[in-house]
Amino acid sequence: MTNGECTFWHFRWDANSDMKMEGLTSYIAKQKDVHRVYLINQDYAFGHQVQKAAREDLARKRPDVEIVGDDLHPLAKVTDFSQYVAKMKAANADTVITGNWGSDLSLLIKAARDAGLTANFYTYYAGTTGVPTQMGAAGAERVRVIAYWSQNLEKFPGEVLVKEFKARNKDDFYVLATYNALHGLADAIRKAGSVEPVRVAYALEGLQFHSYNGDIEVRASDHQVEQPLYIFSWQKVDGKRVKYDQEDTGYGWRLEEAIPAAAVTLPTTCQMQRPPRPN
Question: Which end of the chain is more exposed for a tag (fewer CB within 10 A), N or C?
Fold first, then answer.
């Protein structure tokens, strides 16, 4: 539902795939140890877009980097990624970029760990359920993620939220988009003075507020939320920069770089068809 597929009824509270790759490759471009990159993604629309954006962004920012492998695999059907990891090792890849999520990421990380692959992983979803457990100590300092939030952001004001969620659910709170969406919805309802969908949707357009991950703005032209993004690395808890672990592993996410919203805000080709604005 991006660009030409946009719709008035859709609001995206996460950064889209191109925005994330813009931020991720800008960070990668500054890493002097990146020379040989392997791409692996799921074989459906999202994976294809991650693949395309990675190739285009790397070519623009680091033309010296060689893409030594590029795999698309069936979505949620691969149970053993060892064959893919073997190809990464054979290609002497020093860096892996992947948009994989769910079991396709946790099993990939497991296979890399079991095979002793020393390449660094740059991911979209290494902080999602199940992946931290698979990484454990083996992923320390070698796995990075681009995200809009982490519990270990400096001067994080939402500790009560994190602690209460953990106590109540015996799980980690990491999907801040749920909080931001409800915050924005409540603000829009108050602004509209109504719960009628068209009025609320129009009230959401251009809405701004401050959240736990920084300043938020809902871009009116395509309903894409603009917000800061962050690069985090997987590190051992130290009580300072890594205060909270994930999935009781003793490891969590350390902030490496904060990326302002303006640096990942991309133009849109959205030509939204809007219903009549209520009087």
Answer: C
100 pLDDT band (50/70/90 cuts)? very high
pLDDT tens per residue, range 156-175: 778 888 999 999 999 999 99
Beta strands (DSSP E) in the chain are 36-42, 66-73, 95-98, 120-123, 143-147, 208-211, 214-218, 225-226, 229-236, 251-259
Beta bridge partner(s), residue 69 = 38
Task: Name the one residue in this structure whose structure tokens are 């795939």.
Answer: 17
User: Dihedrals φ, ψ of 84, to 5°?
Assistant: -70, -40
Pair 38, 96: CB distance under 8 Å: yes
| Beta carbons within 10 angstroms of residue 275's beta carbon | 11
Instruction: Give dist(CA 121, CA 97) in Å, integer.
Output: 6
- The token duo for 103 is 């079991």
Q: Are 117 and 218 in contact (CB under 8 A)?
A: no
User: Given pLDDT bands bounded at 50, 70 and 90, which one contains residue 202?
Assistant: very high
> What single letter denotes the amino acid at residue 171?
D
d(CA 29, CA 40): 19
User: Rounded distance, CA 88 to CA 93, Å?
Assistant: 6
pTM for this model (two decimals): 0.96
CB contact set of 56 (below 8 Å; sequence gap of 6+): none
Residue 215's nearest CA partner among 260, 182, 161, 256 is: 260
Cβ–Cβ contacts within 10 Å for residue 222, how many? 22
Structure tokens at 226: 């603009």
Alpha helix ranges (H) inside 193-253: 197-204
Q: What is the dihedral of CA 233, 239, 245, 250, to 10 degrees?
A: 100
